[in-house]
Write a structure and sequence with these properties.
The structure holds two protein chains of two kinds. Chain A is mainly alpha-helical. Chain A is 75% helix and 0% strand. In chain A, helix 1 runs antiparallel to helix 2 and helix 2 packs antiparallel against helix 3. The longest helix of chain A is centred in the C-terminal third of the chain and has 31 residues. The chains are: A mainly alpha, B mainly alpha.
Amino acid sequence: MQVGLTHYLVVSTLLFSIGLYGVLTRRNAVAILMGIELMLNAVNINLVAFNRYIAPGAVGGQTFALVIITLAACEAAVGLALVMAAYRSLETIHVDEINVMKW
Amino acid sequence: MPEARCPGGELGAFIILSLVTLIPAVVVVTSGNIVRSALSLIPTFLGVTGLYILLHAEFVAGIQILIYAGAITVLILFVIMLTQGGSGVRIRQINEQVPLGAMAAVWLGFLILLVVFRTPWQIDATSVPQYNVSSVGTAFLTDYMLIFEVTSLVLLVSLIGAIIIARREE
C-alpha cells in the first residue's frame, strides 16, 4: 500500500483539530499560542503534501510553507511579548482573568 | 524513483512519524503542567520534520528544525519561566468550555475529513519532483519576489513591535 495524499491530509486534519481544541480550552495565554503553533504546522503539512502530489514539478507549496514558518515566528514573538506586557501590568497570564483594555 | 525499492517502508515510516507527531500533540493540549506541554512541542515538530523529509521537502524540513524546534520552543520556555506566577502545576489550566471546545474540534475535523475523502484529487504522478535548495531559492527570487520582500518587511516590523511591547516602561 502506497502512502498517498489522503494519508497526509488525515494527519494534518487531526493535528489541526488537536490544536483547535487546545486554543479553545486553555486558560494560559502561552498554551493558547502553543495550540496556534500546532494549527500552523498542520497547514504547512497540507501545503507541502499538495506540492508533492498535485504539482510535483513546481515548488510553490514549499515556498508558501516557508513564508508561513516565518510568519509563525513573527506571531510567536509578538504574542509572547504581549503576554509579557500583560503579565507585568496585570500579574496574570490567564485570558479569562484579563478583562481590562487599558491599565 | 528510489522509494520503489522497499514498498512497505514508506508506509511504516509514515505511520511512525504520524504517531510521533500526534501523541505529543495530545499531551501539549491536555497536560496540566505547562512546561511538559512546551517540551512536548519538540517531538511534534520533529515528527512534522520527518513528514517533510518523506515528502521530499528537505529544505523546509531543515528550516522547520531551525525555527520551530530551535527558536519558538525556546522562546515559549523563556516566557513560561518569566511569568512564573501563572504557570504553576497547582493552577487550573483549562477553562469551563472543555465540552464545547471538544465538540467544535471534533466537528471541524469530521467536516474536513469528509471533504478530504469526497474530493477527487487530481494526483500528478508523471512529473518528477525536482526539489532542492536552489529551486526553492530561484522560485523565491523570481516568481515569489513580492512575497519574499513583504515577508522580510513583516519580520522587521514584528521584531521592532515585539521589542517595544515587551520593553519595561521607564
